[in-house]
Amino acid sequence: MDASVEELDKKFMSIGLNETRVKDTLKNKKLSSALNRVIDEAKLDGSGCDRSVGNLLMTLANESLKQKDTKLQKHEPYICSKIVKGDIKSTLQVNAAIAYCKSTDSVNDEEFDKESGVGVTCTPEQITELVGQYLKENEAKIIEQRYSSFNATSSALRQHPILKWASQLDVKQTLDKKYLELLGPKDERDAPVGKKGKGNKGKADTKDQKKGTTGSSKSNYNMFEEGFLAKLHKPGGNPQLIPERMKEHLQATGGGVVTRFPPEPNGYLHIGHSKAIAVNFGFARYHKGICYLRFDDTNPEAEEAKYFESIKDIISWLGFSPYKITYSSDYFDQLYELAELLIKKGKGYICHCTDTEIKKARGGEERGPRYACVHRDRPIEESLAEFRNMRDGKYRPKEAILRMKQNLDDGNPQMWDLIAYRVLDTPHPRTGDKWKIYPTYDFTHCLVDSFENITHSLCTTEFILSRVSYEWLCNTLEVYCPAQREYGRLNVVGTLMSKRKIMKLVNEGYVHGWDDPRLYTLVALRRRGVPPGAILEFVSEVGVTTAISNIEVARIENCVRSFLENSVPRLMFLPDPVKVTLENLADDYREEIQMPFNPKNTSMGSRTQYLTKTVYIDRSDFREEASSDFFRLTLNQPVGLFRASCPVVAKKIVKDDKGNVVEIIAEYDQSLSNKPKTFVQWVSEDAASNSPVRLAETRLYNNLFKCDNPAVLKDQDLADQLNPESEIVLKNSMVETGIYDLIKSAPWPKTDSSAGVDKAGSPESVRFQAMRVGYFCLDKTSISPDKLVLNRIVSLRGEESAKNKD
Predict the structure, then answer these.
(1) Which residues, at least 6 apart from 578, have a Cβ–Cβ distance to it below 8 Å?
(2) What DSSP string runs through 513-546?
(3) What is the Cα–Cα distance from 349 to 386, expressed in whole angstroms?
(4) What is the mean pLDDT of residues 183-191?
(5) What percentage of the chain exceeds 70 in pLDDT?
(6) What pLDDT was estimated at residue 140?
(7) Which among 776, 349, 786 is positioned nearest to 560, based on CA atoms?
(8) Taking the CB of the first residue and of the last residue of the chain, which one, N or C, has fewer CB atoms within 10 A?
(9) How open is the CA angle 528-534-540, to the nearest 5 degrees?
(10) Alpha carbons 448 and 328: distance in angstroms, whole number
(11) Compositional bias (Basic and acidic residues) spans (predicted)?
């Protein structure tokens, strides 16, 4: 005897389906019959089951009805038993089980489990290992096809015998990271072929486009194939004063490219350094060469261990691995020997002049005539003895220096007898008290480049005058002379990049340390949540020429937005929530709603949200009075809740003593008689899913300074130009529980987040788009999942934040 509608209603509710879904199912007699049969086959004995099991049973009933396969219907009870037992936990497993059952007359337990992924678990470590293994096996093809192979790779991983059962969001994020490590940021090789219309509209690089008779064009600047870097010599192409040195050099390098990134460990790197890192490491990577990370640690007075570690972390974070980490101090013995050789050649002398006397002899501020130091022509033996006295600690700082005897008649100041060694009464972090004298940058840099067989000594144009002294010293000492070449530095207008000025802000408490997200140090940008790939894409977009690049902050932010738009999930977030009570719903009402993490990128997967009697919307989404330009909730205007099945109709409001709205009494219009003009985001009150997620703090960042160019300010004027709204802290914000899925996919760090290690799992790697608000990440002060702090990375574009109808 067929069950009555009332019996089916009760039966369907017992497996956790919400009221709306039950009503929809009862309208379809065939589906009702199939679901009734499946519930009976599950042998629930009237006790029902939880919602997750019920949803899987509904999926099985739906597919069975669609496919009308006799073998499937025969094995339905077996699939039901596996669902109820908990062996099958996802829709993907149900579909795999159905496919297996359709292919066999008799179910084999072992085969069924294998084909349906029963018992298969996939940890984040396994995902990383398996994705890496697949990429390694297909590396040649991926390198050839570059990012055009991404979709095919993603599809292949979804068919992987283990990865297909893993969280697809985790797999996608791992694949993104691995592609970036292997290929670097996208460039013109990854531009869509034959893209027409708006794709190239507004491009400023028309002078770089090369059009043929077919009308096709080559656009999107590649800094390694066009312009300055493309014109650099090939290894062996820099002539030597002594040809034998080139033979020795090529024998040592095998004819490959060798570069170096040589930071001074006396501060934190800033956004401008990202260009130097990308140029030096990227140029070597592009030409399949090697790049050293060399710390120019010749000034022990300013060096600290924290700077060494920070620089190494930042380079790794940007996706580069040094061929070898070296230090100028590794070569102190060799440098000292060459300094003595310089003196013996009559090209170096010990000088006892003061700074004022040296400056005056070079022409002074009046740029008068230059003249030789009184010590310049002292006997070689005397200078050699005095140099050894310096080495042995017989002079205090500034009492004696070693100077190079260059050419005072040269118009280039870098040839006016530069200082090669000075006395510093400071222990060195690596060599301790061994040395009382230390080489200068001008003496050290070119010689260590020579020791390491650098093929391309790439630096910014402020060193262009130094090229003459660089080559003079190498040639005078008859060592291999690398080729120094200069490109324009990267300046960011609207912020500070001066270490001295930033230190003033830090020391006087105007900012919260060197990693304050309002700064443009790389540790600050990392903490703010800016992805390393976005920084590299920005550098590539700016390009490399000999001209200095002065870039507005807004251009960097646009590049970051573009990078984040399709690479991060989307969550519902309420900066300033207000309570909405849906009075026509039962206290235990719980509507399950599936939401994709990114509707434009379904490979990111989805999450489940539950709509209940109490929800929250953002205060900006409600007004008491309607107006022609406001489409959200008012007392006279309904609004839709994002992805929910019914609109909300406000009935009345509750205010506190100050006149602020604290609650909106409304109805969930299940009659669908009120058509909303738009949809708003929401977060429910649902204890079962730990919703809402109440945030400890949400920090909104704006420009640190009120003026356009703080770099020109005097130190005493910095404080007066600080923007009082550069950091806005919200204490009452909420976000949906989908954030826990993101935290789970980037495991919570086990170590102190202040250690500066930015790996998959650091708080700032948990990034998302808060719909209609901006892009956010977790801050390092998020001490646990129930005490979360958010940083806004960048706001949304104006047109994106105006209205959201997704």
Answers:
(1) 616, 617, 618, 619, 622, 661, 662, 663, 664
(2) STT-TTS-BHHHHHHHT--HHHHHHHHHHH---S
(3) 9
(4) 67
(5) 92
(6) 87
(7) 776
(8) N
(9) 140
(10) 7
(11) 202-211
Confirm whether 264 is a catalytic residue: yes
Q: Which residues, at least 6 apart from 384, have a Cβ–Cβ distance to it below 8 Å? A: 340, 343, 344
Phi, psi for 550 (deg, rounded to 5): -105, 105
The sign of the CA dihedral 10, 15, 16, 19 is negative
Which token pair is 694? 């109440």
Query: Quick one: which of 292, 293, 318 has its CA closest to 185?
Result: 318
Which residue in the list 158, 218, 499, 694 is annotated as catalytic?
499
pLDDT band, residue 3 (cuts 50/70/90): confident
Catalytic, out of 264, 309, 592, 685: 264
489 assigned to active site: yes
State residue 191's pLDDT score.
Answer: 60
Quote the percentage of the chain above a pLDDT of 90: 64
Query: Given a cut of 50, is residue 222 above it in pLDDT?
Result: yes
Residues 6+ apart with CB under 8 A from 204: none
Which pLDDT band, with edges at 50, 70 and 90, does 166 fall under? confident
Q: What is the DSSP string of 74-133?
A: HHHHHHHHHHHHTS--SHHHHHHHHHHHHT-SS--HHHHHHHHTTT----HHHHHHHHHH
Q: In the predicted model, what is the mean pLDDT of residues 366-370? A: 86
Closest CA to 497 of 187, 217, 712: 712
Residues 6+ apart with CB under 8 A from 473: 342, 404, 442, 443, 446, 447
The pLDDT of 371-396, averaged and rounded, is 96
Residue pair 446/468 in contact (Cβ under 8 Å)? The answer is: no
Q: Which two tokens stand for residue 375?
A: 């010590």
Token readout for 207 is 């002078």
Say if residue 144's pLDDT is above 50: yes
CA pair distance 242, 601, nearest whole angstrom? 59
Q: pLDDT per residue over 152-165, tens digit each?
A: 898 888 888 888 88
Whether 136 is a known active-site residue: answer no
Contacts of 779 (CB under 8 A, 6+ apart): 527, 697, 699, 763, 764, 789, 790, 791
Burial of 505 (0-12, 13-18, 19+ CB in 10 A): buried
| Integer Cα distance of 88 and 79 in angstroms | 8
pLDDT band of 797, cuts 50, 70, 90: confident
- pLDDT, one tens digit per residue, over 425-473 is 999 999 999 999 999 999 999 999 999 999 999 999 999 999 999 999 9
Q: Which of 489, 526, 590, 767 is catalytic?
A: 489
Q: What average pLDDT does this structure show over 166-180?
A: 83
Task: Work out the mean pLDDT of the chain and round it to a whole number.
Answer: 88
Q: Please report the pLDDT score of residue 368 as a whole number.
A: 86
Residue 16 · residue 55 · CB < 8 Å: yes
**Of the candidates 507, 512, 509, 546, the residue with the CA atom closest to the CA atom of residue 528:** 512
Token pair 């004027």 is found at 717
Per-residue pLDDT at 756: 32
| Residue 645 to residue 672: CA distance in whole angstroms | 9
On the question of pLDDT at 206 being above 80, the answer is no
Burial 436-468 (b: 16+ CB within 10 A, else e): bbbbbbbbbbbbbbbbbbbbbbbbbeebeebbb
Token pair, residue 147, equals 């990012």
The pLDDT score that the predictor gives to residue 751 is 36
- Burial class of residue 491 (count of CB atoms within 10 Å of its CB; 0-12, 13-18, 19+): middle
* Cβ atoms of residues 154 and 188 within 8 Å: no
The single residue listed with the structure tokens 């396994």 is 126
Return the pLDDT at 185: 67
Rounded to whole angstroms, the Cα distance separating 257 from 291 reads 8
Is 695:734 a contact under the CB 8 Å cutoff?
yes
